[in-house]
Amino acid sequence: MKDKLYAFAFRGLLTEEALDNTNALKKLNANSALDENLIKRLSLDLLDEDLLARASRMATVYTSIATLENTVRQFVSSRLLEEIGEDWWNSSVSVKIRNKAESRQEEESKIRWHTPRGDKPLNYTDFSELTSIITQNWEKFEPHLNSLEWVKQILKTLERSRNVIMHSGELANEDIERVGSCIRDWVRQVGT
User: Fold this and answer.
1) Strands of the chain, DSSP E
2) Which DSSP helix (H) or strand (E) runs through 110?
3) What is the 3-state secondary structure (H, E, C) of the chain?
């Protein structure tokens, strides 16, 4: 039992250190004034404290996943722009993905009172579609990513965890550690 407790605590420390090393926590702490403003605007003081604490814990995990998801989008866009040119979206992305993303963007544009998620169709793709774009253009990404199977596994793992959190679920510590490991591996391989 003592060994399991030690291993659990040690994994937690490693995950915390990895997040510290990315400066993510420092950046989050710099926005504490914004956090206070959001707390007031969202009436968080009216909600159940235990549920709020659990959701806040998952919000930290979601922040890391969302940041990496947007990092992957930037990577995909910059690589294809550099390799193919301005028309990369139309010439290098399958019709199915383009139609789905553009349909999401069009549907969202009808709700004019709400902020859109972005101004480019790529902002309307998810992890599985990003994986497909990379797969469809593997020769452009291989020098940076090395293994397509590795890319698929990383992005699938992150998508699974993202979906749990986005549907108000909670990840176990092992899942959180896995997310941290995926992020570290991606950043070490590709950079930010």
Assistant:
1) none
2) none
3) CHHHHHHHHHHHHHHHHHHHHCCHHHHHHHCHHHHHHHHHHCCHHHCCHHHHHHHHHHHHHHHHHHHHHHHHHHHHHHHHHHHCCCCHHHHHCCHHHHHHHHHHHHHHHCCCCCCCCCCCHHHHCCHHHHHHHHHHCHHHHHHHHCCHHHHHHHHHHHHHHHHHHHCCCCCCHHHHHHHHHHHHHHHHHHCC
Q: Is the pLDDT of residue 135 over 60?
A: yes
- Tell me the backbone φ, ψ of residue 42, rounded to 5 degrees: -95, 0
How confident is the model over 23-52, as pLDDT tens digits? 555 555 555 555 788 888 888 888 898 998
**Could you tell me which of 63, 135, 125, 68 has the C-alpha nearest to residue 97?**
125
Domain boundaries, the chain: 50-190
Within 10 A of 11 (CB to CB), how many other CB atoms are there?
16
d(CA 123, CA 121): 5
CA distance 12 to 19: 11
d(CA 21, CA 86): 35
- Structure token digits, residue 44: 């968080």
Residue 17: which pLDDT band, with cuts at 50, 70 and 90? low
Residue 60's contacts (CB-CB under 8 Å, 6 or more residues apart) are 28
What mean pLDDT do residues 47-72 have?
93
